[in-house]
Amino acid sequence: MIVYFNSKFLHKDDVKVSPFDRAYLFADGAYEALRSYNQKLFRLNSHLKRLKHSLTELSILFSGFNDIKTIAEELVKKNNINSDYSFYIQISRGISFPRTHHFASDITPNVFAFVKPIVDNRKQREEGVPIILEKDLRWLRCDIKSISILPAVMVSQKAFSSGVFEAVLYRDNFITEGSHTSFFAVKNNTIYTTPLSNYILDGITRKVVLELCKENQIEYKEENIKVDELKTYDEFFITGTTTEVTPVIKIDDWFVNNGKPGVVTRNIQKLFNIYTENFNE
Ligand code: PDD
User: Fold this and answer.
1) Which of 181, 196, 207, 244 to mutate to test the pocket of ligand 1 (most atoms within 8 A of CB)?
2) Which of 6, 50, 253, 276 has a C-alpha 20 to 30 A away from that of 259?
């Protein structure tokens, strides 16, 4: 596998990073995960905008936004990928020595990226997935796509070892989002999703879904979903770059809608699929 590291394309085993890189010492960095449809990066500008937000909030100096598309395309070529792919890019603050919590303002960031063929998720999207509810143990700046995501890793592992697809998180009595997805509920044909705040990531698939609702006169509300009212909703689904629009058919021990994806979710999936075949950006 050929990866990208600081302006070079190298075999993955040839990348050398100092343990004094602050990503290693402090998880001090930000990342983005994108995917292609028909070999074209989906919503590239939205991902770049979100990356800029993350890096600005973390005061990481990075100016290479215009190179990112070329990096992805070169990686696809060098790895002979002919299918759709996912693209990961991580920018760490860089190396500082000796280890101190504070940092100098002129550190050069380390930029790392790789691509891999997209994993087929048709079965999950077709049949729906089970999820578990878990307490949201994350920090208060979940709007930043920081690489410091150990709480998400912990609940994700719990979901994985329980044989379910995702852990959806709650703070007090409110659902925030999934460990790596945005969360939606449906009641009486209206779609509900958690409002944007420092408690959740501004999901790009989430935004596309809300745009599609608007264009197709589907009612939606960015409103908190209460844990103790979950059973009053008819359907649920989760969204994300690689998850796309995936129905939720079981929450903990509760089979939602008798364990079948709902009609509103199916309609959103259909609109989303049409959109990804024809998008401009
Ligand atoms: N995860 N919420 C969280 C906490 C996420 O990490 C993600 C994305 C999402 C969905 O965002 P988007 O629709 O922009 O992918 C929501 C990516 C895929 C990841 O961590 O790999």
Assistant:
1) 181
2) 276
